[in-house]
Design goal:
Largest sheet: none
Number of strands: 0
Distance between the termini: 42 Å
Oligomer: single chain
Number of helices: 20
Radius of gyration: 20 Å
Structural class: mainly alpha
Length: 432
């Protein structure tokens, strides 16, 4: 996820109505929280939230399996609303990255982030801002995306066999230190992959998580492999979210004066950081693009015989959010095709849980396809499908944005090769 100083993009007049953006975000995730009440009683939801907050939640931990569907929905909705309130309280201008950040937080609140563990890292970013004597709002997106390492805080609080009097300060120290280093690292790592990995903080979190896992292992702690993955909910959740995203499309269409103008323009952007569709084309086309990303993601999961659950909803929501900030069907399709090719030719199947997630999250590399074309997009997705299954061992599953970690590595290796081949070809053509 993006972090640090980003280039300025051109904006259209009146393309970004602040109140409308925040109202839509708040209404969306309030609705999500209320939907949770349809799946469980208030008492059951409270019990489920208690399990979600205290249970180890490193990869792969489906909150629907830990606390129930109702509690997972409520956790996602409430965490998102709290962050919306924080952004609004800080008077942060709503842009495409605002939408991407909130939708990503909402998605991973089905899958590792909860009402307790995210705030330790946010506090660390705030501490960095205080140290720099700069507004906290300047680093707020590093804070939101940096909650990718929230499971590490949970593990220290509830997973270590230590007295509570030691676990609390250790968790606080870990969260503060993580948050403190994320902003400068986010800026530095952007240069590493040149903006072709949309999940920049995911790459940074992978590096930081690897350091902490090494510390854990040096004291004798080795996390056990984990897979909590619910199934059997497609009949309920698939129609629910397809209708949800259709409603989003209709809203965007109405806000755009009942026109599709701007939607086709979005499809022509390469998507490299920073490509802010909200600022470039306005709210209506952005909402329509987001809805298309969500519907396509759900249909893909159904087509391959996948599951609609907490982890895959994290992937779907991330696609939806970043469809305001770089992703669209045209630049995502080659990446997904590369993952599918990998699933058809390698030792795993498309419906295996890690590959389901890889296809959704690999779209972090959508700018590669947007900038260099379909072929290189397929290559990027193909390479990503292998790398993502191996880099998790480096951070032990404590980095929720594992695909952002692998995506950064793929972009860092592949993009210079592509550019070298292109420049060599162009140089040869100019001589002949």
């Amino acid at each position: 996820m993006p972090g640090g100083n980003e280039p300025v993009v051109k904006t259209r007049d009146n393309a970004n109505p602040q109140n409308a953006v925040y109202a839509i975000l708040a209404g969306t995730f309030l609705s999500l929280a209320l939907l949770g009440l349809l799946f469980d009683t208030p008492a059951g939801i409270l019990q489920g939230l208690g399990r979600i907050v205290t249970d180890p939640d490193y990869l792969i931990t489906d909150y629907m399996g830990v606390g129930g569907i109702g509690a997972a929905f409520v956790n996602s909705g409430l965490v998102s609303l709290l962050f919306i309130g924080l952004l609004r309280g800080l008077r942060v201008q709503a842009t495409g990255i605002t939408i991407a950040a909130i939708w990503t937080v909402a998605g991973f609140s089905f899958f590792g982030k909860n009402l307790l563990n995210v705030w330790f890292i946010v506090a660390g970013v705030w501490l960095f801002a205080r140290y720099r004597r700069e507004p906290f709002s300047r680093f707020i997106y590093a804070a939101l995306f940096g909650t990718a390492l929230a499971p590490l805080v949970t593990q220290i609080l509830f997973g270590f066999n230590l007295p509570l009097v030691l676990r609390i300060p250790l968790a606080l120290l870990a969260g503060l230190s993580i948050g403190f280093v994320l902003p400068p690292l986010g800026t530095a790592m952007m240069r590493f992959h040149q903006g072709f990995n949309l999940y920049n903080i995911g790459f940074v979190s992978g590096l930081v998580g690897s350091v902490y896992l090494s510390l854990f292992r040096s004291y004798g702690y080795i996390p056990a492999s984990r897979l909590i993955w619910t199934t059997g909910q497609n009949r309920i959740l698939a129609p629910l979210f397809i209708l949800f995203f259709l409603g989003q499309f209709i809203l965007g269409f109405l806000l755009n004066g009942r026109r599709f103008a701007g939607l086709s323009a979005i499809m022509n952007y390469p998507g490299r950081v920073v490509t802010d569709f909200l600022m470039l084309e306005g709210l209506g086309p952005t909402l329509m693009n987001m809805s298309l990303g969500g519907i396509a993601s759900i249909l893909y999961l159904l087509l391959i015989g996948g599951d609609i659950n907490g982890p895959t909803l994290a992937g779907v929501f991330t696609v939806v959010g970043f469809s305001a900030f770089g992703k669209h069907l045209r630049n995502m399709a080659p990446i997904v095709a590369g993952v599918v090719l990998g699933g058809l030719t390698k030792i795993w199947g498309l419906s295996d849980p890690p590959i389901q997630l890889a296809a959704l999250f690999a779209t972090t590399l959508a700018p590669v396809a947007g900038e260099f074309g379909i072929f290189w997009g397929i290559v990027a997705g193909f390479l990503h499908s292998s790398l993502v299954l191996n880099v998790g061992a480096l951070h032990g599953g404590f980095n929720l944005y594992n695909n952002g970690f692998s995506g950064g590595a793929v972009a860092a290796v592949l993009v210079p090769v592509i550019e070298a081949l292109r420049s060599g070809r162009e140089s040869h053509d100019s001589r002949t």
